[in-house]
Amino acid sequence: MAYRKTALGIAATIGMLSQNGFATTIDLTSGGSGTINSAIFQTGQVQPAGTGVLNSFVRLDDSQNSGVWEGHNTSYRPVANDENTSPIFTRDLLLSEVSQVSISDVIYREFLFDINENQPNGTLYLEDVQIFQSDTASLVAGSANILDGLTEHTVYQMDGPDDNNVLLDWNLIGGGSGKSDMFLYVLDSAFDQDLDYVYLWSAASKEEAGFEEWAVREDVTTVDHPCTDNCVPVPEPSSLILLGLGLAGLGLRKRFN
To answer: Where does 111-162 have alpha helices with state H?
Structure first.
């Protein structure tokens, strides 16, 4: 059963916190950062984002031209959803490839997200991110819920009882592919160090027909911090102080196909 969500309206507020059953929407169209379920979503650019700098592990296209896409990384073929079939862009991901970073003396794992929309309507609603681990390579599933059943460990879920979202704008970083538009930092303590494979499921609705991809960074400088490898200091998100802001003008719904 394929999972889809449609965004009806987004409040233009950065770093909104989910409280008392209200959903969180982080608006990164003007930059900034925010948190959802202890993970940090932060505007950021790594350029160029080619071979030797970024290492893509899942590329997602709107294969049905429906304005939405969903899918996860895997080396299994055929793919089940909107994943690109090239093994260069959609593949298995090892935990050892995911860099550790230090933010305010807390260790996170870093993922990069590159959006590729078209001017002038370059907005994208990132509506779901789920991260799992397994000791098995090349898993494939028709939905995030089924994927959850195939893995040994759930690392992160952007949605819970609430319908959380991140709003991005392709034009903010200057457009084009080969540029990361967002960093996602997930607590390192949430990962099982004994499980080798990481699976990232995501879903989004969009304005245009470009592809999006998730990647990890390869050229990370090691710093003096109790990480095992590939550590890099990251500025503390300024918008973390914006906790407790009310949510207004938001209407969201989920639909299942």
So the answer is: 144-150
User: Which residue, 220, 171, 232, 216, is CA-closest to 28?
Assistant: 171
% of the chain residues with pLDDT over 90: 42
The CA-based diameter of the chain, rounded to the nearest angstrom, is: 49
Per-residue pLDDT for 223 more than 90?
no
Buried b (16+ CB within 10 A) or exposed e, 54-78: bbbbbbbbbeeeeebbbbbbbebee
Alpha carbons 147 and 132: distance in angstroms, whole number: 8
Enumerate the domain spans of the chain.
25-235
Q: What is the predicted pLDDT for the residue at 254?
A: 37
Considering the entire predicted model, what is its pTM?
Answer: 0.78
Which single residue is written with the structure tokens 């608006």?
A: 27
Task: State mean pLDDT over 46-50.
Answer: 51
pLDDT at 13 over 50: no
d(CA 256, CA 74): 23
CA dihedral 181, 23, 98, 169 (to 10 degrees): -10
Q: What ranges in 103-208 are assigned the alpha helix state H?
A: 144-150
